[in-house]
Queue: 3 jobs
Job 1
Amino acid sequence: MDRLLLVEDDGSIVKNLTAFLCSEGFLVKSTAEQQKALAMLEREPFDLVLLDISLKEGNGFSLCSAIKHDYDIPVVFVTASADEYSVVAGLDMGADDYISKPFRPRELASRIRTVLRRSRKGRGTVLEAQGLLVDTAKGTVSKNGRELYLSALEYRLLLTFFNHRGTLLSRTRLLEELWDMAGEFVNDNTLTVYIKRLREKIEDDPQNPQIIRTVRGLGYRID
């Protein structure tokens, strides 16, 4: 049974969401405060954290950063803060998904399971291409022995290429893969920006990319 930690300061949401998720087969514990959440994580194992941005004590962004620094646990934001800045900020600090309130409970349960599958699938795997190493257990990326900093969406994009290595990925397919994580804010222009940023970090010559190759008019691939 997957164990979820719900960090939410609205009592009615905690009550209703806990009842629903328990009916879906999850074990749910909850708190409304940042420090209590960290104490609970230290005392007992959890498989995933559901996190609101607005908390009685602290805030969801700082809590997400603390969790990602100290634990190998997926974090899903469930919050009413649906503006683009909040979504991008949450993903850039390592959140695995971002779901806006109000939400459909069954969609939330489905997306929780998707994040859990991704998390487990990637554990213990080291991926390599032309001196680029991706350690999915540690969530690190390095090039020729030097660690690189990638945002959460850049990292997810890179994993998408590695998970479909040798396969031509159209822009539409890439957008579909990334939608689960960032919703409608990943559009065609955003994808162009993230591919450019990713190449600037991982390629020896971003103007002549050898890792993420462009197949003109069709899409991209990693060989």
Job 2
Amino acid sequence: MTVVLDHTAAKARHPEKAHRPDSAVLRKPDWIRVKAPVSKGYMATHAIVRENGLHTVCEEAGCPNIGECWEKKHATFMILGDTCTRACAFCNVKTGLPGAIDPNEPIHVAEATQKLGLAHIVVTSVDRDDLADGGADHFAQTIRAIRVRCPATTIEVLTPDFLRKDGAVEQVVAARPDVFNHNLETVPSLYLTVRPGARYFASLRLLQRVKEIDPTMFTKSGIMVGLGEERNEILQVMDDLCSAGVDFLTIGQYLQPTRKHHPVIRFVPPDEFETLKTIAFAKGFLMVSASPLTRSSHHAGADFDRLKAARESRA
């Protein structure tokens, strides 16, 4: 449902990717297919998002779980606009020169959170390398606005890496989100082709820094598989994240948005995800979600409850 086959549209949305050679979009196996979103709940969520003038990563990134999540009135809000300053080879979010930040966006996110009746909200953003703080203050304002309007709602942020933005991580942590998530996305050997604007150890250091500032704050990270990584590389990423004190690991199947994006090298079968999940728990993570359709925000509220329970059981 999310694959774009119109080459002209793909080039317009991703001008930085236009120079990349086309690659075949593999047919999805049965275990990766989802139903098209048509429910009343989906339409109700769509209306609330639109009336508040908000962007969601569910739409912008073409998430395969949008039908399921929006039917339950769950949405992941994407702040700082809809245009990213980077051009990662896996991502379907629009790239280019972003516009000005909407100063009212934090309030709109809080209002939508209230209207949807969210017990747990995930707030993410595009990369904003053009901003002095990478958008950290806007994250903090959004967290505070949600706290005022929805004090019982737990808040999860999925931030960019704030590369070379001194003090940015500290700003977000000071606003006290319940979960601080930053995805490594892939193994170090693939960063140059998959995530060229980022640095593996800078992302790892960000997660470690969150725990240094506030050891009680839950941290979370995720990777995609099927991009060409080796099994031993996945296990090394697990070890690196454990060393950084990360509590929660997500592992999902990479799905190629267009022919201009990085190709899917293989579709990883469900039993391999179960094996990776078992290994990750054995390595010490409090919470692990691993399946073909796992995404950072999928079932985030229920997973947060499990995360808290896991910490309490270890105390």
Job 3
Amino acid sequence: MSDDIWSRTAGKMREIHTEELGETLRVCVDEIGADVVVIDWREATSAFDALAVMATRLGFPDYFGSNLDALYDVASERAAAARPEMPPQVWLIKSSVAQQKQWFSIKDTLQDAMSDAAGVAVTILWWVV
């Protein structure tokens, strides 16, 4: 069961439903040893706010330009930066249904960055609450 969860999740960007969140996080943390960073966008009122929250929570570099090109670049860099001494990282994005629809371009950018990356240094889970 856990191998199946990790193979569907690792190194990808996907939506996750509440009923599967607990078991997925258990596998990521307990079995894989991943670090989970929660990015709560529910208070953000614009895409710029959402990117600022993400940059702060994930410690994006100072040169991060708060736009989709910069998001793609940083997410791609992080996904490609696997080092054996570093655990994989899970970015758990919490948003409302309205935000998910409104910020489709952010979601699309993250999906592109993850699909172009090889490896499992970063996994992105988008949880609509």
